[in-house]
Amino acid sequence: MSALTLQFTHAGLDALLSAQARGFKGQISHMAFGDAAYTPSQNQTELRSLKERVAIADSDYQDGESTSLKVAGKFDAPLEYAIREIGVYLDSGEVDASGEPELILLGVYSKANTTLGYRTPDVKVLQWLTLSLAQLPSESIEVKLSVDNLNLIVDKELAEMTLTQLDTMHRQIKQEFRLQQQETALSELQQLLTSEITRLDTTHMTRLDDRVEAIYGVFNGELANVTRVQLDTMNRQTNQEIRLTTLEHQ
């Protein structure tokens, strides 16, 4: 990303020269977004439509270019707006009545009828900006990081991400455990059904065998009665034939 050429303000340049005269450097401490699009002025002391201002979370000079400086700020307020102006602030070293640091607008970036980006309330933005310092006095700038610097932000985000991953893994393990329990219960049910079917088959066959034996018994009894009747009839016929034969011989 190419460096943004800021419109430096009279108030910001005066603060840098004053600090330099006392042997100090001006401390860039905050950056801000607004939603007004215009041509910046040297006489500005604030963004025209300030929406969100945050402390600098990290910084890094661009490799090989001592006149460029990279700064980052975390924008995480639940706000929604079009980003049309960017402000960079110096820490004056003083605090206001509420204990907040008094800030001096060092520079502004904006263009008429131009939207630079868009902020949504559901998205946290760690915004990096590369600033051109070519128009500033040499070695007059340093960066003052907030207490919540980038490492802490990253650690917090990493911790939140890790917690989310662990929670997801925990739910997956619980789901797999429930599936295992269901599979075990299904297997036990199948075994129980198989055993019950086997028992029913055995009982049914036993009852069927008993019925067959009873039918055989009845059949054999009936057969025996028929056989006795037939034998008795044959015996009477034989006796009758013998008597007839005896009479014929007389």
Observed structural traits:
single chain; 250 residues; alpha+beta; 2 domains; 8-stranded mixed β-sheet; two-stranded antiparallel ribbon; 2 helices; 10 strands; 45% helix
What can you see in these coordinates?
It is a single chain. The chain has 250 residues and is α+β, with helices and mostly antiparallel strands. Helices cover 45% and strands 28% of the residues. The chain has 2 domains: 7-147, no CATH class; 149-250. It has 2 helices and 10 strands; from the N terminus they run E-H-E-E-E-E-E-E-E-E-E-H. A hairpin with a 5-residue loop joins strand 6 (85-95) and strand 7. The model has no long low-confidence stretch (mean pLDDT 79). It holds the Pfam family Phage_tail_fib.
Structural class: alpha+beta
Spans of 5+ residues with little confidence (pLDDT < 50)?
A: none
The helix content is 40-55%
First-to-last CA distance = 152 Å
Average pLDDT number: 79
Task: Set down the secondary structure blueprint.
Elements: E1 7-8, H1 10-21, E2 26-34, E3 50-61, E4 68-75, E5 81-83, E6 85-95, E7 101-110, E8 117-119, E9 125-132, E10 141-143, H2 150-249
Parallel strand pairs: 2-10
Antiparallel strand pairs: 1-7, 2-3, 2-6, 3-4, 4-9, 5-8, 6-7
